[in-house]
Amino acid sequence: MDSENWKHSLLYLIFLLAILHLTQNYFSHKLFLDNETVRIKKNPDLPLRFRSDGTFKILQVADMHYDSGTIVTRCKDVLASEFEFCSDLNTTQFLKHIIRAENPDFVAFTGDNIFGSSSPDAAESLFRAFGPAMESGLPWAAVLGNHDQESTMSREELMSLISLMDYSVSQINPLDDDLTNSSKGGMMTKIDGFGNYNLRVYGAPGSMVANSTVLNLFFLDSGDRAVYQGIRTYGWIRESQLNWLRRVSQKFQGQKQDPLHPTDAISTTKPPALAFFHIPIPEIPQLFYNEIIGQFQEAVACSRVNSGVFQTFVSMGDVKAVFIGHDHTNDFCGNLDGIWFCYGGGFGYHGYGKAEWPRRARIILAEQNGKKSWMNVQRIMTWKRLDDEKMSKIDEQILWQSR
Ligand SMILES: *[C@@H]1O[C@H](CO)[C@@H](O)[C@H](O)[C@H]1NC(C)=O
Ligand SMILES: *[C@@H]1O[C@H](CO)[C@@H](O)[C@H](O)[C@H]1NC(C)=O
Ligand SMILES: *[C@@H]1O[C@H](CO)[C@@H](O)[C@H](O)[C@H]1NC(C)=O
Ligand SMILES: *[C@@H]1O[C@H](CO)[C@@H](O)[C@H](O)[C@H]1NC(C)=O
User: Hey, whose CA ends up nearest to atom 13 of ligand 3?
Assistant: First the structure.
């Protein structure tokens, strides 16, 4: 092509883009005026609470690794015979099926929701990846992994968009109130990362604990990559995040759950808590030598930096189980000093996995004590579901029981 032609083509292209832009503006202007189609975020009923049967069920989705959400996205590590008809749409189909099969009360996405490095438009990938969650009308929340920000949006932008999506209860970071350290004279401290927040789950409607937190959920940003002492490694949870965690947990200590109806049956200890983040902590490799439920099939890709997350959980006392992702072919739960650490197991078809080892998801079920008149949480269970023909349920186990 000679340069004159090239210039003409370029002008023509600019002309087309201008027309497109004008018509889009015109239509969006119209859309904005039309009452029916004004976009406002749809919110779930809050607070989160147990059902009237005294249960609260969480679906953990780890590592969707979503791309553009079209049939051209290739699946990794499936059988040669499955390869041709496999794409991101299989990930979407799995999410829809599992929501229908398990009917959870809440969905927790533990990072690498999108595979940024292969996604041309992060916002579009996010909308498509979380589409089934938004359509379900269930409250859902997400944290980031190490790949989410590799496309067109920063971690802050990703978390703010995620927090604005329909039925999302994700937050960018805790409110200033929770960050205030009174021993520093009420000075505000900044927290590292994006996507550190606490969600409280109230007791069943109409019960004695209907206005009390009976289960706490902590979400943490475990970062992406970092260089430590000249060596490239994965991110880690920082001291500012641990300080915030300790402070929030401390607030529940000795709190009368229901000041209006004091009763011996309602405990004044902290409610049990569950934590969700992406990158495993450096203690996880020790589980190789412990009894585990599920499979340990790949080296734990944790950070070289041990920032004391495990010690913090132990000293807090309320965290009973921790749910992580990142290593797609590990799906086990193992116990360290009374705290369970559970992998979700890889969910998405565009992320690496293992052929003939179905993609999977984890379910967590918390049950309140009592019959008709529900009390504090008595038991927390977990199991996994496979994306096979029967959506097989495997590895059911008890994570925690109140004494
Ligand atoms: C939107 O609907 C409300 C109530 O139905 C009405 O009062 C208002 O004028 C409408 N606004 C527009 C821009 O149509
Ligand atoms: C992907 O979805 C298609 C269409 O539903 C289905 O035929 C195919 O078996 C699925 N592949 C895998 C690996 O699940
Ligand atoms: C919880 O709050 C609601 C609304 O304020 C009130 O009607 C109900 O009696 C409260 N329940 C308990 C157990 O305190
Ligand atoms: C508050 O700040 C002080 C001084 O930096 C620190 O030693 C202390 O651990 C902090 N307290 C909490 C609860 O984070």
Answer: 208
